[in-house]
Design goal:
It is a multi-pass membrane protein. Keywords: Membrane, Transmembrane, Transmembrane helix. It is found in: Membrane. InterPro entries: AI-2E-like. With about 400 residues, the chain is mainly α. Helix content is about 80%, strand content about 0%. α2 crosses α7 (about 155-175), α4 packs antiparallel against α5 and α10 crosses α11 (about 250-295). The chain starts with 18 loop residues before the first helix and ends in a 15-residue tail after the last helix.
């Protein structure tokens, strides 16, 4: 029997299209999709938020049904609680912004002084007059009020968004009762897709719930600290800290800048430094210690990809895209990578480095063992010598 060699196996099947063409077509298609999503951002943002909320609330509705609560009552209760929380947060934010805008004229002199100092500094660096005036215009209280007013968008806009969210919540919550059966049918035909969607829902649910709880704690601590320091609009900055807890990497810097400025206005450098210390400690404990341990490997995205996703989705969908950057990116990975066995080799490149860490740990352990073996200080050799050091043990002296 003759063996099959690579030469006798025949030539490999040629690609239908060159790799460069495939990459360019993929990039062009992605650009078209991104532009299309951006054109309907006013609808797409609330819809994506509703999908994430429905995923997070699904276990609560299921638990109520298991306790004998009728399906309609369980669904309605979950929808009302979610909608009441969103509406309360939205209108509290509007009230806080309104109060903040009303008090801005009281700090016009402080803003003018900061703008003058920055203008003098830029002039010494050789920056042109037009550029300096553009920078100084950003410290005009009316410009700041216009920015926050545009960010809120008015009560009418918020009400319209809440109506969309409420409608989608009712419809998605009603459809969610069929999800278990649909997943069983999907698993019979597309088992990899079913596995990817189940893993996505579990990971997003864990990430969002943990981030929400820790964000509430973080916002409450920061708000109380700012109130004790007599920083203006402490409630607004507490809500901002809560919302920015959903924005990885850059959310901390967005949340700290406004209270820093107004803390400096009312208390000078001591309050300025106190705000930095408080925000830094709270962020370090919550975001760097507690959250990674609780969330675990539910996200598994690299830091660079996380940062890029925040910028990308903020441009495509708007501010809500920055808040939902992690869930949206995980959904794209689940559909494009996790559901396709031939594309799962992309996971380590996207941030799933669990296997790579294990390999690196084994390599470090082997290198450490080799160093001990070369110096003759391995644990086995120390045991044979009867001690823990490199020198043999000193024999006991004979009694006289």
């Amino acid at each position: 029997m003759s063996e099959t060699t690579p030469e006798s196996a025949g030539p490999a099947p040629a690609r239908r299209y060159p790799r460069g063409v495939v990459i360019l077509v993929g990039l062009a298609a992605g650009t078209v999709v991104a532009v299309g999503m951006s054109s309907i951002r006013s609808i797409l943002g609330p819809v994506l938020l509703t999908v994430v909320l429905t995923i997070c609330a699904q276990p609560v509705r299921t638990a109520l049904e298991r306790r004998g609560v009728p399906r309609g009552l369980a669904t309605g209760s979950v929808v009302l609680v979610l909608f009441a929380g969103l509406a309360g947060l939205a209108y509290t934010f509007v009230i806080a912004v309104t109060q903040f805008v009303a008090m801005l004229p009281d700090y016009a002199d402080q803003f003018a002084a900061i703008a003058a100092n920055i203008g003098d500094f830029l002039q010494k660096l050789g920056v042109g007059t037009n550029e300096i005036e553009q920078v100084k215009s950003g410290f005009d209280p009316s410009a700041i009020a216009g920015f926050f007013g545009g960010l809120v968008g008015g009560v009418a806009s918020i009400t319209a968004t809440l109506v969309i969210i409420l409608t989608m919540l009712i419809l998605l919550a009603a459809d969610a009762s069929y999800v278990p059966t649909v997943l069983v049918q999907l698993g019979q035909r597309r088992p990899h897709l079913k596995e990817a969607l189940v893993e996505y829902a579990s990971g997003v649910r864990r990430y969002m719930v943990v981030t929400t709880v820790l964000g509430l704690v973080q916002g409450a601590i920061n708000g109380i600290a700012l109130w004790l320091l007599q920083v203006p609009a402490a409630l607004l900055w507490a809500i901002l800290a809560f919302l920015c807890s959903y924005i990885p990497n850059i959310g901390y810097f967005i949340a700290i800048i406004p209270p820093l400025v107004f803390g400096y206005f009312v208390g000078g450098w001591p309050t300025f430094i106190a705000v930095i210390i408080i925000y830094g400690l709270v962020n370090a404990v919550v975001q760097s210690i507690i959250q990674p341990r609780v969330v675990g490997n539910a996200v598994a995205l690299s830091q660079s990809l996380t940062f890029f996703s925040v910028l990308f989705w903020a441009i495509v969908i708007g501010p809500i895209g920055a808040v939902l950057a992690i869930p949206i990116t995980l959904l794209a990975r689940a559909v494009l990578v996790d559901a396709d066995p031939t594309a799962r080799w992309w996971r380590p490149a996207l941030g799933d480095v669990g296997e790579a860490r294990a390999i690196m740990a084994a390599a470090d352990a082997e290198a450490k063992a080799n160093r001990h073996r070369d110096t003759g200080h391995t644990p086995e050799q120390r045991t044979r010598r009867g001690g823990t050091g490199a020198h043999p043990p000193i024999p006991p002296r004979d009694e006289e």
